[in-house]
Amino acid sequence: MFARALRELRERAGGTVDAVVALGASRTAVYAALSGSRLPSVQTLDLMVDAWSGSAAAEREGWRERRRAAEGAMAEASRLRGVAAPRRTPEEADFADQLRALWNASGSPATETVARNCEVSARTLDSYLGGRTLPTPERLDQALIGLASVSRADDETDVSVEGETLRTERLREALTRARAARKEERTRVRELATALPGGQPGLDRDVSPAFNGFGPVPGVLPGRRFGDRRALVRAGVHRHLMGAIVGSERRGAESVIVRGEHSDDEDHGDVIIYTGEGTMGDQQLTRGNAALATSASTRAPVRAVRRITDISGAQAYRYDGLYAVADYWSEQGPDGWRVWRFRLVREAPAEQGVADLAQLDEAAGPGLAGGMRSPLSVQRVVRSTAVANLVKQIHDFRCQVCGIRLQLKDGRAYAEAAHIRSLGSPHGGSDTIDNLLCLCANCHVLMDGGMLVINDDLTVVSRTDSRVLGVLSEAPEHRIDKQALAYHRILHGAPEEARGIET
Fold first, then answer.
1. What DSSP line would sit under 363-388, residue for residue?
2. Mean pLDDT, each 10-residue run in order, the chain (503 residues)
3. Where along the chain do its domains lie?
């Protein structure tokens, strides 16, 4: 243990804390290092070694290596407990090295001395120098102000203005890189920590090593019940003790718990209208909501878990199989805040690992709705082929957005008729000519995904970079429903100020 080794060093040397403080260390940092509450910064460690064993360079480097090993062991132990504890990135180490170099060039003042000349505490300065934390750009500027004040008061410090300015500029650039690298590392470790059942505190690793988190769980059929969230995690069905959505924006959603967070979910058995996560203020298309949106694009199946009440009245959970995210949109919730809604449609029985739906209902038994499937009558939306063909012919099969006319090898032209406001529940769009556009396949996908929005003046805006791509092509016999355009913009959360800010 690193703290124990430091205490043994002090005892062998008969050293004191006061001796280290006299060299410029923070008393709080020294006591924290000896108690093991936190690792000392490299600067504080060097002063402790100097005070208790001399100032040999080899001795310092040996203790620095022990500190690095202790830091790595702590990070690994935290990761295995499911705690996001990223290791220090090379960019962070570079920033700390540059900060210490500037500090040494300024006369190596004590952090307590610098703290008296700025708005940053000695303890915080010590953590910056040790690479434990990164300052914000504003806090770094405050620290540099304090350091400059101490340097100007020291007649023996000889640092040119030009050289100091260059060092501080490089230091700010290093901070920008370090903060970006830390953000990426935190995301990586957090995903790694929650990706394994062993990444949750106190849980056994019962899941097959071949299971990657998506799709059906080996050995777990729909209808299986679990007494609590911990049992779900152990089985690998829903691998998070708290969140209602498991997944990431990059890979998509693994699983959701229905009625785990919002009471306004619509559960029709085979179809679920699922409300995204976030209970305070407008919901954002981030984290779990973004994961479900990614699944809508990839069409990867999502495991659905229902919270149920068993015969005895106790709360339990039931794995109810795989669902596809067929659609998503934003709307105003019952409390006045905007929410994200996702339409989940149950996968075919063959994808569930069983022969037919009756087996699933029999396995599920009584529960929230008497079984996995509640009575649901689904009316198929009938699209008018004649209306779609008319729109294409009006525009000569030319895309109204990009102007491309696709020609097939047999001489026929190809285009797609796209509804602005989708048909059927919950959108309620009409299958009429004013609710249709003639688009190429690419623009159709972008339109349906909300990456193209059309303003009332028919300017087409790319959601990728908010550029105006042009004006939607229109014909006298094909006028566009402006209310449908407005519904499409609201549905995909396009803010008014972002609808075409560049030309």
1. HH-SSTTSSS------PPPPP-HHHH
2. 87 89 84 84 86 80 85 61 60 89 86 87 85 88 87 52 72 90 74 47 48 79 88 88 86 85 71 83 86 86 87 81 89 82 80 52 46 41 66 92 87 88 78 90 87 90 84 89 88 55 36
3. 2-195, 225-364, 385-498
CATH 2.30.280.10 at 225-364, yes or no: yes
Q: What is the pLDDT of residues 424-482, one digit of tens each?
A: 667 778 888 899 999 998 999 888 888 898 998 899 988 877 788 899 998 888 989 99
Close Cβ partners of 243 (under 8 Å, ≥ 6 residues apart): 277, 288
Give the pTM: 0.42
The residues, any chain, with a CB within 8 Å of residue 358's CB and separated by 6 or more, are none
Peptide bond into 426 cis (omega under 30): yes
The whole-angstrom separation of Cα 143 and Cα 119 is 8
Burial state string for 378-390 with b = 16 or more CB within 10 A and e = fewer than 16: eeeeeeeeeebeb
Query: Strand 252-258 and strand 302-309: pairing?
Result: parallel
Q: Report which DSSP code applies to 81.
A: T
Three-class SS of residue 317? strand
Give the span between the Cα atoms of 345 and 457, in whole angstroms.
36
> What gap in Å lies between CA 40 and CA 29, rounded to an integer?
6
Question: CA triplet 269, 484, 478: central angle to 5 degrees?
Answer: 130
